[in-house]
Design a protein that fits this description.
The protein has about 190 residues and is mainly alpha-helical. The protein has a single domain, classed as Orthogonal Bundle (Arp2/3 complex 21 kDa subunit ARPC3), CATH 1.10.1760. The chain is about 75% helix and about 0% strand. The chain is globular and about 50 Å long.
Length: about 190
């Protein structure tokens, strides 16, 4: 199968997982704690590249919001998540593909960048929508503290999933710079 077509098909699978997996978590009240939509989006960065992962990250919460009502489109949770997850996919993909960092550092960079975007957008948009202004640090801090179990789950699951599909699993986890392109098995 053509490489581009394969990545596009995988992208569709990750969008579908990003809609279906949260349904299971929200059914038992664990959606906000375990961040189930984030996992397929972050995985897409390692399998589909930064641009596709950013598109997957942007589309998934909006499609899920329209199809299932979660996350809600208003208040603009789905819109905030669309930008946050787009940044997740973009940063994780860029750090992994271009900077040749391993999964763990690229994952941590993506989490940090996405949370900052979420906090800045909340700070800027809430007053425009009639909500009280919140300090810029408040949504960032809340996102880290409220979803700590989800962050731990992501750090535990995503590197293992990528390493299992790679020929050099130890190299994938921390730094990929010394792997030659022809020796790599691209997931």
């Amino acid at each position: 199968m053509d490489r581009s077509l394969r990545k596009t098909a995988l992208g569709g699978l990750f969008v579908a997982l990003g809609i279906l997996v949260p349904i299971m978590f929200h059914a038992v009240g664990l959606g906000k704690t375990f961040l189930p939509m984030h996992i397929p989006v972050l995985l897409s960065a390692y399998y589909c590249g930064p641009v596709r992962a950013a598109l997957i990250g942007f589309a998934t919460p909006l499609l899920s919001g329209v199809m299932t009502g979660m996350p809600p489109l208003f208040p603009p949770t789905a819109w905030l998540m669309a930008f946050e997850l787009a940044v997740y996919g973009l940063i994780a993909g860029l750090l992994y593909d271009k900077a040749r960092l391993g999964v763990i550092p690229s994952l941590l960079g993506a989490m940090f960048g996405g949370r900052i975007v979420y906090g800045l957008l909340t700070f800027l948009l809430f007053p425009l929508l009639g909500f009280d202004r919140v300090p810029v640090w408040a949504p960032i801090a809340a996102a880290f503290t409220q979803s700590l179990p989800g962050i731990i789950l992501q750090i535990g699951v995503i590197p293992v999933a990528v390493a299992l599909s790679h020929r050099h699993p130890r190299m994938v986890l921390m730094f990929r710079g010394d792997l030659k392109q022809e020796d790599e098995s691209t997931p």
